[in-house]
Write a structure and sequence with these properties.
Binding site for ATP: 135
Radius of gyration: 26 Å
InterPro entries: Kinase-like_dom_sf, PH-like_dom_sf, Prot_kinase_dom, Protein_kinase_ATP_BS
Biased composition (Low complexity): 454-474, 482-493, 548-565
Protein name: Protein kinase domain-containing protein
Structural class: alpha+beta
CATH architecture of the domain at 189-398: Orthogonal Bundle
Strand order of the largest sheet: 4-3-2-1-7-6-5
Domain Protein kinase: 106-368
Helix content: 25-40%
Length: 578
């Protein structure tokens, strides 16, 4: 992270003594500093019992060799390092942490858009007035997908990737409640929006775009990073005029590949976008960088023909076709495309991932290195590449129910629900409107997670990662009140730390903006099919009960109705606690 403008996020851990709140007896606790946040653990391997923001705090050494933290909200924390050397080191690092406020270095001028895991704002460097994009991820420890995305972004920043075709990260500020990423501002926006507006598009132009994309992907693979979500929304243009320079963006689903005992570099987990995801991901197999090459092949096919190689009437059809790896090159769209271009598509969409072209090999393909490609305009209609046409079809997902999607029994009612949800999403979704599955309509965290993301640095809203969701015509399943443990009540919530207020947030539970011209996509969940089935069983039982008959539930409905609500773990951030 040495390339960051204002230094890497701070990190320090160690055992310190802390006085008890009531009897002032000292207890040894494990403390962990994460940039500008300090966390207290009973033991090294236990979750934090509390955490505080150190922004704008005062740090001093007391008369007893103790370190005194005077927090911005008036609270005071006193800890006792075990040696004088430890005390000096803690004071130095904690003092630096108190100054790690993004508002000291960057200003904000407006909101680009909101997504499932983040919001992106237009900002500027206070020292140089250079425009930047500021990605803000509001943490929620109960949202495992969000926290995983936060860790993925921090992990990517730690690799210090520097390449002309990868969006640059200028700074990273990791606070108690938020992660701030200061990124290169891509004024051209999403690549496909530029192509949809441009009347002139040739194989020579497409080759240059793919050269940039493959170069960025090859750089990631050289750092043992697999992006896992290469798609149009994550390919951004430096400017909107030709010749285009494009870069890879958004690393919220990125992961590091580890070498196995067989010498393969692999990771796992079902992540991606249905139309661009590789077959091995759908099959639930370990996979490596080849999944990104497959996605590049789908993107190349889409650019040249204006259509998708793996499409279908519903999500199950799409996933089945991706899994089979079968696609066509109809003459109506491919007759005028050169054999070299078709050969590159075939090499990137090879079903066997071990025989698929790597990004480095694709960069040496004749169609990429050629300087004599045709400048003739490709006649295929690319108007469908625009955001307004793509918004319902390009949502990312955590596809952890693919097996259920492919093996789900043919329940006519389920198929009707699925098709209705997809139809609403593809054809008639109002701009900026999102949806939730019936099982999570009353869960703000799930609702925000299923709201839709955008490319982290473009000026246009775009879909990104999140679990497949979708608006349902069925009424929401009544939510069960969530019990709150005594440990979770604690003291009133402290005011927001200084610096956070400099970047105001839109309420996570609020509906998506309706004035977003680009629109945000509907998403559809396999889970919602099964949720609706359960809901119908419950509804029948309620109807029978209303008529004086004993309610009849299916096995799943009975189990769900009988199961007691499980209290959610609560973490108290009371700095005066133990």
């Amino acid at each position: 992270m040495s390339s960051l403008r204002h230094g890497a996020p701070l990190a320090m851990t160690g055992y310190l003594d802390k006085e008890g709140r009531k009897f002032h007896s000292r207890k040894t606790r494990f403390f962990k500093l994460k940039d500008s946040a300090l966390f207290n653990h009973r033991r090294k391997d236990t979750p934090p019992t509390w955490g505080v923001s150190l922004i704008d705090s005062r740090v001093s050494v007391g008369s007893r060799g103790d370190v005194v933290l005077q927090l911005f909200d008036g609270k005071k924390i006193v800890v006792f390092p075990h040696t004088r050397g430890e005390a000096d080191k803690w004071v130095e690092v904690l003092s630096r942490a108190s100054r790690r406020k993004i508002g000291n270095y960057y200003g904000v001028t407006g909101l680009i858009g909101m997504g499932s895991f983040a919001e992106v704002r237009i900002g500027y460097d206070k020292a140089t007035s250079e425009p930047v994009a500021i990605k803000v991820m509001k943490k929620n420890k109960r949202d495992s997908e969000l926290m995983r995305s936060v860790e993925c972004e921090i992990g990517f920043v730690s690799k210090a990737v520097d390449h002309p075709n990868v969006v640059k990260t200028y700074d990273c500020f990791d606070t108690r409640d938020n992660l701030f990423l200061v990124l290169e501002h891509m004024a051209g926006g999403m690549l496909y929006d530029v192509l949809a507006k441009e009347g002139y598009f040739s194989e020579a132009t497409a080759s240059g775009i793919m050269r940039d994309l493959l170069a960025g992907v090859a750089c990631l693979h050289a750092h043992d990073i697999v992006h896992r979500d290469i798609k149009p929304e994550n390919v951004l243009a430096v400017r909107s005029t030709f010749p285009l320079t494009v870069k890879v963006a958004d690393f919220g689903l990125a992961d590091f590949v580890l070498e196995t005992s067989f010498g393969d570099k692999c990771t796992n987990g079902m992540y991606g976008t249905p139309f661009f995801v590789a077959p091995e991901v759908i099959r639930g197999e370990p996979y490596g960088p080849a999944v990104d090459c497959w996605s590049c092949g789908v993107l190349l096919y889409n650019m040249l023909s204006g259509t998708l190689p793996f499409d279908g009437a519903n999500i199950k059809d799409v996933l089945r076709r991706v899994r089979s790896g079968s696609y066509d090159l109809p003459d109506s769209e491919w007759a005028d495309i050169s054999p070299a271009a078709k050969d590159l598509v075939a090499g990137l969409l090879f079903l066997d991932s071990k025989k698929r072209l790597t990004a480095a090999e694709a960069l040496e393909h004749p169609w990429i290195v050629s300087t004599t490609l045709s400048e003739r305009v490709i006649a295929n209609d690319r108007s469908a590449l625009a955001t307004s046409s793509r918004r319902a079809r390009m949502s990312s997902m955590a596809i952890d129910n693919v097996k259920d999607a492919l093996d789900l029994e043919n329940d006519p009612a389920d198929d009707e629900d699925a098709m209705a949800a997809l139809s609403r999403g593809f054809d008639s979704l109002p701009s900026g409107e999102g949806g939730v599955t019936t099982s999570s309509a009353n869960d703000p965290a799930a609702s925000r997670r299923r709201r839709h993301t955008l490319s982290s640095t473009s000026n246009s809203a775009s879909p990104r990662s999140g679990r497949l969701g979708g608006r349902s015509s069925a009424p929401p399943v009544p939510s069960v009140p969530r019990p709150v443990s005594d440990a979770g009540r604690g003291s009133p919530r402290a005011p927001s730390p200084p610096g956070v207020g400099a970047l105001p947030f839109v309420d996570a539970g609020a509906p998506a903006r309706q004035d977003n011209a680009a629109g945000l996509p509907a998403v559809f969940s396999v889970k919602s099919i099964m949720s609706r089935r359960l809901f119908r069983q419950q509804a029948v039982g309620e109807e029978d009960a209303g008529k004086g008959r004993a309610p009849v539930h299916g096995a799943a409905g009975a189990a769900a109705a009988a199961a007691p609500a499980r209290p959610q773990p609560s973490v108290s951030y009371d700095s005066e606690g133990d």
